[in-house]
């Protein structure tokens, strides 16, 4: 993500259009480092969220209302006193700095018109909200910064406000072509890094975007650029800055699969292979982006303990499987001992007492064989010894065959749960997965004694609609897969699944109609994406009619067998497949 100067320029334009001329009606400090300011303008009410959080500094318009504490903090009280009913005159941004300055007009105690500045610095851990007089004297700030905390600048009441010039970057809105060549293209750095370390407001993302638009590799050294490349880079940069000056923003979120990956105020052409969603408002984009990111982060945090349990169990079962397969391989020589015993019974009469070997012909394949003997035993006793060894290995092989099959099933089951954790979208999905782990003894239930087992909140399978209008359902875990395949699907519906790997059951409701090729292809893509092979270029998909599915007795949920099927190769790409809410 790139909350850079270009994004801030888009925010400034949106806030200026919405808030300039508006009157402040309410100020709340909803968090220690966050303000929610309500403004009425042109018969509309706007809520302006300003956050100086070190982890997530933000500034945007929101429709969500948040309540502040019963007793307002001192900074909030100061703002209410001075600008509680003030009028916003302008919203400005110095250069392409990540700074917004709200100039607010209000009346003092004597009724005279005065002006104040509310300055929002969106600079990562150095973010702050600073309240100043018109001549840049700091009245207070939401975070106090002393010289002990920063040797660059104090942010305390009574100090002069200024923008720290620690990096001495060039203003991209004012830089000339000659200066661009002298600064950016003279640095002994890769091209993209030279751009974002020289120009204010450029993030690594936008520097790479600039290079991509100029058909240049961002990792190319600046001294490797020839004259046409240098000229093309500057002209591409000039066009980009012209869009910023004129407010030609096109906010966009780029997705990798279902997850928001990047956002920007200008189109990101470098991600042409990814799905992108455009917004007409940078505020709506920021709200949507961070809501999605927070949801994904929250699910990942809540699934951490389950992932650890599944990972530990999977590692244990995988080690057990390797050991069992090695032991099973060792039993393959059992038939050799049986043949030794049979040959001793057949030819042992010719042995002299104390013989150490028997040379004989294996009458099964006609090959000569040397049979080691214990000279202290008779031929019959030697034969019995080999038969006993054969019997022991045979019993071991039978037991290991069963145990190995059970361990393979356990590994496959755990791998399917691990894939379900990757697919999970909300807490209800995690409840179902936790129930499954408890049902199969991987975790203990913590329900109070004497009470009935707590049921998981129903979590529905994913629902897509093919381009031809057919309903497609995707199970997000083994219990949903089981329900889809054996309770929801009817005999003539089509079933899809990634071949020989854990993944979702995908059901296409045919309604008794013949499916078009495009629906088969889309269902295959969904089965590929919702499987452990989603990172592969292509995934082999098995598909068959639901009536061909069988569930083996005692099998884990979601495990099926089928003996009639078709196959197709599908890309794990679900862009342009419509998901139904």
Average of pLDDT: 91
Rough outline: elongated
Give the percentage of residues in beta strands: 15-25%
Tally of helical runs: 13
The oligomeric status of these chains comes to single chain
Count every beta strand, where a strand is a DSSP E run of 2 or more residues.
21
Short description:
By secondary structure, the protein is α+β, with helices and mostly antiparallel strands.
Describe this structure in words.
37% of the residues lie in helices and 21% in strands. The chain has helices spanning 5-19, 74-83, 177-183, 191-198, 204-213, 227-246, 282-302, 304-330, 334-347, 379-423, 427-439, 478-488, 517-529, and strands at 23-31, 34-41, 44-51, 58-62, 87-92, 99-107, 113-121, 128-133, 138-141, 252-256, 259-264, 275-278, 357-362, 367-372, 462-465, 471-474, 494-498, 506-508, 539-545, 566-570, 578-579. The protein contains 13 helices and 21 strands. A seven-stranded antiparallel β-sheet has the order 20-19-17-18-16-15-21. Strands 5-6-7-8-9 form a five-stranded antiparallel β-sheet. The model has no long low-confidence stretch (mean pLDDT 91). Helix 4 crosses helix 5 (204-213), helix 8 runs antiparallel to helix 10 and helix 9 runs antiparallel to helix 10. The protein is α+β, with helices and mostly antiparallel strands and 581 residues long. Strand 1 and strand 2 (34-41) form a beta hairpin.
């Amino acid at each position: 993500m790139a909350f850079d100067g270009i994004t801030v320029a888009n925010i400034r334009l949106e806030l200026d259009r919405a808030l300039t001329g508006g009157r402040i009606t309410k100020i709340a400090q909803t968090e220690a480092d966050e303000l929610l300011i309500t403004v009425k303008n042109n018969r509309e009410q706007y809520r302006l969220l300003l956050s100086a959080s070190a982890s997530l500094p933000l500034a945007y318009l929101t429709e969500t209302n948040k309540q502040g504490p019963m007793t307002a903090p001192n900074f909030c009280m100061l703002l209410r006193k001075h600008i509680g009913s003030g009028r916003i005159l302008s919203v400005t941004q110095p250069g392409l700095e990540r700074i917004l300055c709200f100039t607010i007009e209000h009346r003092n105690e004597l009724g005279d018109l005065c002006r104040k500045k509310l300055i929002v610095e969106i600079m990562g851990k150095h973010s702050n909200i600073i309240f100043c007089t018109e001549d840049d004297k700091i009245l207070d700030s939401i975070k106090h910064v002393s010289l002990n905390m920063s040797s660059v600048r104090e942010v305390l009441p009574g100090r002069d406000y200024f923008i720290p010039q620690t990096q001495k970057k060039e203003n991209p809105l004012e830089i000339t072509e000659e200066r661009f060549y002298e600064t950016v293209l003279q640095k002994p750095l890769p091209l993209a890094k030279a751009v974002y370390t020289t120009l204010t407001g450029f993030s690594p993302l936008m520097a790479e975007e600039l290079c991509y638009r100029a058909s240049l590799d961002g990792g190319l050294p600046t001294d490797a650029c020839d004259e046409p490349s240098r000229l093309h880079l500057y002209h591409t940069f000039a066009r980009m800055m012209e869009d910023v000056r004129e407010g030609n923003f096109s906010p966009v979120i780029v997705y990798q699969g279902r997850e928001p990956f990047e956002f920007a105020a200008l189109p990101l052409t470098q991600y042409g292979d990814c799905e992108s969603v455009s917004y007409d408002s940078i505020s709506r984009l920021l709200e949507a982006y961070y809501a999605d990111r927070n949801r994904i982060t929250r699910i990942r945090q809540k699934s951490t303990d389950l992932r650890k349990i599944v990972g530990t169990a999977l590692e244990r079962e995988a080690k057990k499987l390797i050991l069992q397969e090695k032991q099973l391989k060792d039993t393959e020589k059992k038939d050799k001992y049986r043949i030794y015993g049979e040959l001793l019974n057949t030819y042992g009469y010719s042995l002299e007492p104390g013989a150490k070997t028997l040379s004989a012909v294996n009458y099964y394949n006609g090959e000569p064989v040397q049979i080691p003997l214990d000279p202290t035993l008779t031929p019959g006793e030697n034969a019995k010894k080999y038969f006993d060894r054969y019997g022991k290995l045979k019993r071991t092989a039978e037991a290991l065959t069963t145990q190995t099959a059970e361990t393979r099933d356990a590994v496959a089951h755990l791998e399917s749960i691990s894939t379900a954790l990757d697919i999970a979208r909300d807490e209800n999905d995690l409840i179902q997965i936790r129930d499954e782990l408890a049902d199969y003894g991987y975790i203990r239930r913590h329900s109070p004694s004497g009470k009935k087992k707590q049921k998981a909140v129903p979590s529905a399978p994913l629902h897509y609609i093919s381009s031809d209008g057919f309903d497609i359902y995707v199970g997000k875990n083994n219990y949903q897969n089981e329900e889809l395949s054996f309770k929801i699907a009817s005999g003539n519906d089509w079933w899809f699944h990634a071949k020989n790997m854990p993944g979702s059951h995908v059901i296409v409701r045919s309604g008794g109609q013949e499916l078009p090729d495009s629906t088969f292809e889309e269902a295959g893509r969904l089965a590929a994406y919702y499987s452990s092979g989603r990172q592969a270029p292509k995934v082999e998909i098995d598909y068959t009619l639901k009536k061909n599915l069988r569930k083996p007795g005692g099998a884990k949920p979601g495990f099926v067998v089928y003996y009639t099927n078709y196959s197709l190769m599908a890309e794990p790409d679900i862009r342009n497949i419509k998901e139904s809410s």
